Amino acid sequence: QVQLVESGGGLVQAGGSLRLSCAASGRTFSSYAMGWFRQTPGKERDFVAAITWSGGSTYYGGSVKGRFTISRDNAKNTVYLQMNSLKPEDTAVYYCASAPSGLVYIVPKYYDYWGQGTQVTVSS
To answer: What pLDDT score was predicted for residue 83?
Structure first.
């Protein structure tokens, strides 16, 4: 059974940084692309960042490009999201997701496994 467990969320002041982690188990982590999404109440889940199976290519949503960095350590079965220069509008529940192949998708419905989410709150 595939499990994704996020950690690292919390409360931070605007301009601060957080690093989210997502530990994966249950399948060969290094074979699959991974993504980060975020969601606020009453809104759809938005694409934040994604990384190919090897880590050789990364993709970002427009609102986080230049501030967030996605990376992965296949030896540790973990994907990370380094978030810098945080803004109040980054406040959301952040989810990691595993794609069904090594290719990246920016649409949530193409991911087949999801973590439980971790809350990130940025105060002004």
So the answer is: 98
